[in-house]
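Bumping my old thread because nobody answered last time. Still need a sequence for this structure:
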């Protein structure tokens, strides 16, 4: 059994999936044993097919077609099968031998049948199983090169209508539709194998279009249609390789497809066809891409294709031209251009574009902060600390946030001018606060706290106001040296929290009360705390969870 144990299942699945798997052991059915594998069905939200791969002394592996399992996880359904296998450990050798005997017996029986008897059997099964008959019909059409029949059948396979309710394929029906649609990939590949690659190539393109048309009407949460789209893309590439299409025509289709919504479904990269296109085809590919971009310079797909082709040819100027044709007003595109130029070792041009992005942003408060960081970093690295300070100062003046203050401080300290810059920055924040803008006062408190200037932060909070989080931070930092001030804050915050319910509020309340107790200890008034907590518990006694938390932390009264 490959050393399968509950401990290994728990390690593979994790505690949560393992515990959930325990409840599914009665839902396991149709267990089949083979050499190194065990398969079964497990009923969950729907019936899922699961397979455990065993052998050696290492950890087992598994596959399940449930959504969680398809993401590569060892799911609860695999746990349920593993637990079922462990329960049958004593019978496992016998079950495996029985499975081998059945397989050998079936092979021997089929081998011993005459041609006529075998044909009769297949016909009988086709009469009973409609899907089997259709699969064999498709194989037969591929083998004889019946393109018209294959085209018709592919259209049927990709038609989501029979699976749709009110015009939409719900999640519960997607697996059945996807299983059917996947047969289209096999049909196209079979046609290529039969020597009709040109027809296969055309059918692959048609199938991609049909699948793309169906996507909007399907709940493809698991990405099954994306897998089929990738399969069709591979089938198209194989057909092109076998058929040797006209490079000009192939280039035209690749560009048209890259600009179509179906491109998201197949993820076809035109550059994967470079060896098939050759020099003539690649030239055509670039020509068609340029024409499309010139017709729609702001289109995302057009820009992406142009950039992809330009980068592959190391044509940095074309990449820049594509970006420059649609510059974002906040300087983000300028930053992209600067990064491309830096990667090409054109640092002077890169800095020029980045500086231009800052200049051309109408309001420095809206500029992409990553662009500010980029330019400031370049200034610092090239020995221009004063320019870095000027940039950070201007940005702080436009966006008076704690982060902008911290960045200004770092730049000014590097330039040995922080005391002067700090005085100017704090004056700006004080001006904001005096204009009855509470944000200015709060940023001023945060900035002083970040500087470690606790006394100044306390004065500003009292003068201009602060939010509860800032008051709590002030109290925590002042408690060792000014316990009376900290106590006043804690008591005020406690009063507010006692009006709330819920475990989160109770946890916050306990934290505050621990602070209150410590303040009384530092002030030498422990009896006052005992009286306070006694009264509080009496007033809050109906909150049983709070009482338990208080007891857990030793916050009891007299």
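Sorry it took so long. Here it is:
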């Amino acid at each position: 059994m490959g050393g399968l144990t509950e401990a290994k299942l728990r390690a593979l699945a994790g505690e949560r999936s393992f515990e959930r798997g325990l409840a599914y052991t009665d839902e396991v059915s149709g267990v089949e044993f083979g050499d190194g594998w065990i398969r079964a069905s497990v009923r969950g939200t729907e019936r899922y097919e699961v397979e455990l791969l065993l052998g050696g002394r290492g950890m087992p592996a598994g596959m399940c077609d449930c959504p969680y399992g398809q993401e590569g996880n060892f799911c609860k359904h695999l746990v349920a099968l593993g637990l079922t296998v462990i329960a049958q450990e004593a019978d496992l050798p016998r079950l495996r031998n029985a499975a081998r005997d059945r397989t050998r017996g079936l092979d021997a029986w089929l081998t011993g049948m005459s041609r006529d008897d075998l044909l009769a059997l297949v016909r009988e099964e086709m009469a009973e199983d409609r899907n089997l008959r259709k699969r064999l019909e498709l194989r037969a059409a591929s083998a004889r090169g019946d393109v018209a029949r294959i085209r018709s059948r592919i259209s049927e396979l990709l038609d989501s209508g029979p699976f749709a309710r009110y015009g939409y394929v719900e999640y519960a029906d997607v697996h059945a539709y996807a299983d059917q649609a996947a047969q289209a990939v096999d049909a196209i590949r079979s046609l290529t194998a039969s020597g009709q690659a040109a027809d296969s190539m055309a059918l692959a393109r048609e199938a991609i279009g049909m699948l793309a048309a169906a996507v909007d009407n399907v709940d493809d949460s698991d990405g099954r249609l994306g897998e089929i789209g990738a399969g069709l893309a591979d089938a198209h590439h194989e057909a092109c390789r076998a058929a040797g299409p006209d490079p000009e025509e192939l280039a035209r289709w690749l560009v048209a497809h890259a600009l179509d919504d179906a491109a998201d479904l197949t993820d076809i990269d035109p550059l994967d066809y470079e060896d098939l296109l050759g020099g003539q085809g690649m030239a055509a590919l670039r020509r068609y891409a340029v024409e499309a971009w010139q017709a729609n310079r702001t289109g995302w797909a057009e820009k992406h294709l142009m950039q992809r082709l330009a980068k592959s040819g190391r044509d940095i100027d074309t990449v820049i031209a594509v970006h420059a044709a649609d510059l974002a007003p906040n300087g983000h595109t300028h930053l992209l251009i600067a990064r491309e130029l830096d990667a090409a070792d054109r640092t002077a041009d890169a800095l020029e574009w980045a500086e231009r992005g800052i200049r051309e942003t109408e309001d420095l408060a809206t500029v992409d902060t990553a662009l500010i960081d980029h330019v400031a970093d370049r200034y610092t690295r090239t020995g221009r600390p004063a320019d870095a300070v000027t940039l950070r100062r201007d940005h702080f003046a436009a966006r008076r946030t704690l982060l902008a203050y911290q960045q200004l401080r770092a730049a000014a300290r590097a330039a040995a001018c922080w005391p002067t810059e700090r005085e100017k920055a704090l004056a700006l924040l004080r001006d904001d606060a005096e204009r009855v803008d509470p944000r200015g006062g709060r940023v001023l408190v945060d900035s002083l706290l970040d500087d470690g200037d606790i006394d100044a932060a306390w004065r500003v909070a009292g003068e201009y106001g602060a939010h509860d989080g800032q008051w709590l931070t002030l109290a925590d930092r002042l408690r060792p040296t000014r316990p009376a001030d900290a106590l006043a804050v804690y008591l005020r915050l406690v009063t507010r929290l006692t009006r709330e319910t819920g475990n989160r509020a109770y946890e916050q309340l306990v934290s505050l009360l621990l602070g209150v107790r410590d303040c009384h200890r530092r002030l030498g008034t422990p009896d006052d705390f005992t009286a306070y907590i006694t009264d509080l518990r009496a007033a809050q006694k109906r909150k049983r969870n709070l009482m338990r938390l208080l007891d857990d932390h030793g916050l009891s009264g007299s």
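Residues 219 and 326 are 35 Å apart (CA to CA). Let me know if any region looks off to you.
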